[in-house]
Amino acid sequence: MKRLRLAIVPLLLAFLLPQQAMxxxxxxxxxxxxxxxxxxxxxxxxxxxxxxxxxxxDWTGADGTYSVRLPSGKELWVFSDTFLxxxxxxxxxxxxxxxxxxxxxxxNTFALERDGRLRTITGGTPRRPKAIMPPRDKQHWFWxxxxxxxxxxxxxxxxxxxxxxxxxxxxRWHRNVVASFPQGRLERPISVRSLPSGNGVAWASGILKDGxxxxxxxxxxxxxxxxxxxxxxxxQSLLGRWEFLTAGGxxxxxxxxxxxxxxxxxxxxxxxxxxxGYVLITHDxxxxxxxxxxAYSSCSPSGPFTGKQVLYTTPExxxxxxxxxxxxxxxxxxxxxxxxxNVNSFVNTDHYRDTSIYRPRFIDVRFG
Length: 368
Fold this sequence. Notes:
Layout: H1 2-14, E1 33-38, H2 40-51, E2 59-62, E3 66-69, E4 75-79, E5 82-84, E6 104-106, E7 109-114, E8 117-121, E9 123-124, E10 129-130, E11 140-150, E12 153-163, E13 171-182, E14 191-194, E15 202-210, E16 213-221, E17 226-234, E18 242-245, E19 251-252, E20 262-263, E21 269-274, E22 277-283, E23 292-298, E24 306-313, E25 321-328, E26 337-345, H3 350-353, E27 361-367
Antiparallel strand pairs: 1-27, 2-5, 3-4, 4-7, 5-6, 7-8, 9-10, 11-12, 12-13, 13-14, 15-16, 16-17, 17-18, 17-20, 18-19, 21-22, 22-23, 23-24, 25-26, 26-27
Keywords: Signal
Protein name: DUF4185 domain-containing protein
């Protein structure tokens, strides 16, 4: 469970100190928030799939939860840290293989949804599953970012992390990459290429296609404070030439010019076109261990994002349990804008005791 603990560390850092969000004030084109509610279909879909023991080698829980709709009508769900295996009758799971159990733990996987049915996709073989993006060695691993379609290929972003010492805190973000997958063969990428990584920004917390550009949102994670950054590339593919939004509002080819646009975002967040405006949805990192999913609005995909408002308060938060990384899925049908968030525990054995904790939840957010 060492790497699962690593997944929790950035959250601990993020909530050590409260931060101040951007000044209040609502964009003129901001949609009116009308309410939110649990999306029972999607929450139930992953709950039932995780509990299904008809196959013992598939998904029982994960975090990350990005999605991209394929032209075939299938929905590709992109996950980071993932449990594979069996759920016991009492709702527990065996320990991971590394601790003498039978549960496989991988740092990234896919699930493919068609007509309300899910199928787990991993690398390796059914007997020896591996991460879709396997690490180069035991000191490195990949966590997934957002995904997009370009030229018939699925482009999935990943951030590589590395461990540089023996201490629990001796690890760091290393670089960004994009992996390209044929839609009909998702078990392994046909190419993995480097993305800009020279300015300490983990791209892509979220991706937005708007007009002639694909906008790529990133996070500069300083522990107690997390800053939004923004890049864009002309066209559909992330493999084009990137330009970066500067503090003065111009676009620069130089990654070093990428500016801190605001704080208070999480490692995963989204910007979505809603009506005539753009809505940024994120877990609130301006207060410690927040249960709040909040929104900001703008008349432009590049901001400024203002008018912070609470969309939903996660009921799971409390005690050892925390929630994080809320973001929207505009391609997924729901009663409004579908938003997912992740649930986790600071106590590793909780994930063995209760499989229901470590699974995504979904809500519908309605705007007027």
